[in-house]
Amino acid sequence: MDADDRYEGYESPQTSDLSDYELSQMPTKKRLDRAVRYFNRHPMEKQSDIAKRYQVNPRSLSNRLSRQHIPKKKNRGQNIGLTPAQEVIVLKFINSYLEHNMNPTRGVIFAFITNLRKRDNKPTLSTR
Question: pTM for this one?
Fold first, then answer.
């Protein structure tokens, strides 16, 4: 049983149970994880003090904490600029091309969407 197993899930305020040597032997990622958990339990303590205590770079701790609170963006795909009704119109346009044995190119579809949005007095979509 090593130091990582003995103290998993337990964080003492002073980390006095873990010597400096035991902390230095612990992988950086694990020390950073413990520092983040400690900060979440003690938000009034300075990040720099926690970074010193857990022997991690203060910038790494700050970056990890800032990424922790960013909500994930939902991926809506390519049709984010179209309403559901406009999506149906675009699909009908593509199907009409396919019924005539023609493959619509990206430019043709983009021009159709641009005209569709212009008709509704909305700004055009940007090209990628």
Answer: 0.43
